[in-house]
């Protein structure tokens, strides 16, 4: 197996153009498992660890641009205040060792329906920055990135350079169900982001369909139902309906981790709870306005 180790992003793109079959490796927490278990035997490995800019983040035009290789541990430490939903998800990934190596870029590259980054990226309207030597940069909204089980919109000659996201403008939550408390692949997961300036609710459903996906009908319902002006309490009936609509958006299967019925039920509960938590946080931060 050939092993390539470019030192610059331009060299990495050139190597991928020349060897479209080369498998990128960042933290290696998916790639090495697959190689060790003989799940795949790539013709070449393209090690991106020397490309320093992949592990940097900055802000541009009020948005965060986070390098594909920034490990979860740094994301939690350095961006937890600005991307709280993603940081919550990152805290549930694997173990400290996995969080020190694993990255959002690798989660996107693997495009597993169970990947924990995906629901918060969807709820927060993140955009994936992909690039190829031949066609340059392509900005792919997270909602258009996932095409099938472990299939993404990435072309064979493209690499993920970064993801973009606005810093949270309201409360965000991530909730995950596993068969134990840590080191666990999600049975199902859910992320919610309030976007108060746009009076909008964002959602992301994980591990309950062939791809991570949003729940558009639930988003529209909650966005219309929440009392953005008066900041009144969330009626129980509304949070229950929101939960039902999130569950309806899923297309789960029965597998070793859980049944389709359990996943639907769990999603409804997680959706109901995260909406209540987020709305209560929002109300606490911005007191209720009573009509005088
Ligand atoms: C013990 C263990 C526990 C785990 N627990 C979780 C968990 O709780 N939640 C979870 O979501 N995942 C979990 N994982 C899976 C894995 O840690 C994550 O998917 C992680 O985000 C992968 O990141 P990485 O940098 O290690 O990716 P890598 O293994 O380096 O790469 C993963 C995939 O992305 C591709 N890739 C990497 N970088 C790029 C790039 N810049 N451009 C294009 N493609 C790229 C690779 O070719 C590969 O297909 C676990 C893994 C292990 C071994």
Features:
FAD binding; 3-stranded parallel β-sheet; 5-stranded antiparallel β-sheet; Diverse_Substr_Oxidored; flavoprotein; 11 helices; alpha+beta; FAD-bd_PCMH-like_sf; Xanthine dehydrogenase family protein subunit M
Report on the architecture of this protein:
The chain has 292 residues and is an alpha+beta fold. Among the domains are: 1-46, no CATH class; 172-285, Enolase-like, domain 1 (2-Layer Sandwich). Helices cover 36% and strands 22% of the residues. It contains eleven helices and 13 strands. It has helices at residues 9-18, 31-36, 72-79, 84-91, 96-101, 104-110, 118-123, 142-145, 216-225, 236-249, 260-285, and strands at residues 2-4, 22-25, 44-47, 57-60, 63-67, 127-132, 136-141, 146-148, 151-152, 159-165, 172-177, 188-195, 200-206. The strands form four sheets. Strands 4-5-10-6-7 form a five-stranded antiparallel sheet. A hairpin with a 2-residue loop joins β8 (146-148) and β9 (151-152). α3 runs antiparallel to α4 (84-91). It is globular and about 60 Å long. The model has no long low-confidence stretch (mean pLDDT 96). Bound molecules: flavin-adenine dinucleotide. Residues 23-31, 33, 48, 68, 92-94, 98, 101-103, 105-107, 109-110, 115-116, 159-160, 183 line the site of flavin-adenine dinucleotide. It holds the Pfam family CO_deh_flav_C. It comes from Actinomadura litoris. GO terms for molecular function: FAD binding; oxidoreductase activity. Keywords: FAD, Flavoprotein, Oxidoreductase. InterPro entries: CO_DH_flav_C, CO_DH_flav_C_dom_sf, Diverse_Substr_Oxidored, FAD-bd_PCMH, FAD-bd_PCMH-like_sf, FAD-bd_PCMH_sub1, FAD-bd_PCMH_sub2, Mopterin_DH_FAD-bd.
